[in-house]
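I have a small job for you when you get a moment. Would you make up a two-line entry for one protein for me to read? No commentary is needed, just the two lines. Write everything out right here, beneath this request.
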Amino acid sequence: MSVFLFACASVPPQKDFEEKKNTDSSNFKFVSYDNEIVSAETDTQNYYKIFIDKKYSGSTNVALRSQKKKFEAKLIEDRHLLRVERYIYHESLKTWSMDEALRQPDYLYFDIQKKRRTVVTLEYSKDGAAKKFVVTYEPIE
């Protein structure tokens, strides 16, 4: 007799949330956090699904909105398209859901350059109402 186990929809799969280790081979890093949390009640857990060039590439670690969520990857030198989906944990319902459409960031084009790590930071302010991407570069030895 076979027994089938179904994953609970309220819990994200753990394999998607293994934080990527910072290695010399990564030349792209995504970081996000909320920098103006109004109260502890609004500082809920969240994570991001990462899509690069319209393909699912992985997820960030799960952390409170005020804490940094990170994702790293090795990409070819070229121009790339980034889309992220923000997911929020609802403590009262014990479920995850995609955040409201107004709180989802726009697409972002970014470049991968030789011997440089592209760091895309997504900052939320005003308790998640305002958001902006900041792109910086770090040297890779």
